[in-house]
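Worked Example 4.2. Consider the chain below.
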Amino acid sequence: MSAKSAINKVVFTPHDEKMLAAVQVKRRTKKKIPFLATGGQGDYMTFICLSVTNKKPSHVSITKVKQFPGSSSFAKRSMWTIDQLRQVNGCDPNKDCPEFDLAFDNAFDQWVAGSAGEKCTFIQILHHTCQRYSSQSKPEFVNCQSKLLGGNSILHSAADSVTSAVQKASQALNERGERLSRAEEKTGEMKNSAEQFSVTAHKLAMKHKC
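Applying the procedure from the previous section yields the following structure tokens:
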């Protein structure tokens, strides 16, 4: 089981929530905290997770989840509602990059994702979720590539790909049907010509016998 699947199962499912997206991150600027409250050094994995409650009305949260060295368990460290999110900074509107910032009412964090693709997927889903669930003023998305904010989230892109594939398959079947229909018409015409030729040949043969 992947770490993200495990987080959904361990952290969110027991609270009747569904994880929509998660991105593994590290701080771009480390806090000057040599030891954690647990007594261990700060070498841990951090995930920023987006989740929604299964019950209506839906409540969307952004949660910081950590996994400490030598442990298979996960722990919630911070949580915000989607209405507390004020700004998402993609750091570069011209190219894919793993850096992004999140600004809340009472917090500001600068992150670097495990990869640019992982960050882009997270921001796409986050933007789509904000458009759908934010009840107050929607957060500002700045320095983000247009492909992430154009309404074509990864979910829509997947749906578009399926629709396109179905349309192409349907078109191919239609073209094949048209070709078969034309072939059948030609076969019928050839059959009629052969029958007419046979009748004509028979008439000529009978005429010569007479």
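The CA atoms of residues 124 and 154 lie 7 Å apart. Confidence is low (pLDDT under 50) at residues 34-41. Compare this with Example 4.1 before moving on.
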